[in-house]
Amino acid sequence: MNIILMGLPGAGKGTQAEKISENYKIVHISTGDMFREAISKKSELGRTAQGYMDQGQLVPDEVTSGIVKERIAQEDVQQHGFMLDGFPRTLVQAETLDQIVKELKTSIDRVVNIKVDPEDLVERLSGRFICRKCGATYHKIYNPPKVEGVCDVCGSKDFYQRDDDKPEVVRNRLEVNIEKNTPLIAYYEKQGKLSNIDGNKPINEVFDEIKKVLEKV
């Protein structure tokens, strides 16, 4: 079974990826994992990607796609199947991926898209705050201090929020991701491979919905 896992930041993709990989014994391939492996093996494409990354530049599509092909051609993936996480990110990459799997005489069986309302994601992602004194991390909804305004660990009342966690920054990051994901969702919907999963439910219920989809593959 070969699948693509999609979802906006904060939708719970990482948690569900672990559950899918564990339950179905398929190889979980994230973009970061692929790059690290190609670079550590010092493959030609790995060295090329490293050159771009060392200069702080984005790795071009053709290099990224080449690394994807290298990875999914490996024996463990051929034997157990794969779950792609973080690729494709663009329509061009999706079209290239179709070519890659065709060349490798396999296919993408299902695209699982975990959907959560963007405003709910803003609340999830911007609720984190940190104790300035000891670094303990909290969330205003999911993990508040036992006593409001007082750190559980050191008793400090001095908290701060990272710039990345501020609502306006989170909202902007989500907008960028929505813009990128929309053409991909339409592409896979047209192919009849897309399954939307309600990510607002509890973790285990979300996974139950994913299992229902994958058991039909």
Report on this model:
The protein has 217 residues and is of the alpha/beta class. It has a domain at 2-116 and 181-214: Rossmann fold (3-Layer(aba) Sandwich). It is 50% helix and 16% strand. It contains nine helices and eight strands. It has helices at 13-24, 31-40, 44-54, 61-72, 75-80, 91-103, 118-125, 167-190, 203-214, and strands spanning 2-7, 27-30, 82-85, 110-115, 128-131, 137-139, 159-160, 194-198. The strands form two sheets. The protein has a five-stranded parallel sheet, sandwiched between helices. It has a three-stranded antiparallel sheet with strand order 6-5-7, with no helix packed on it. A hairpin with a 5-residue loop joins strand 5 and strand 6 (137-139). Helix 4 (61-72) runs parallel beside helix 6 and helix 7 crosses helix 8 (167-190). The longest helix is centred in the C-terminal third of the chain and has 24 residues, at 167-190. It is globular. The relative contact order is 0.17. Pathway: Purine metabolism; AMP biosynthesis via salvage pathway; AMP from ADP: step 1/1. Catalyzes the reversible transfer of the terminal phosphate group between ATP and AMP. Plays an important role in cellular energy homeostasis and in adenine nucleotide metabolism. One of its GO terms (cellular component) is cytoplasm.
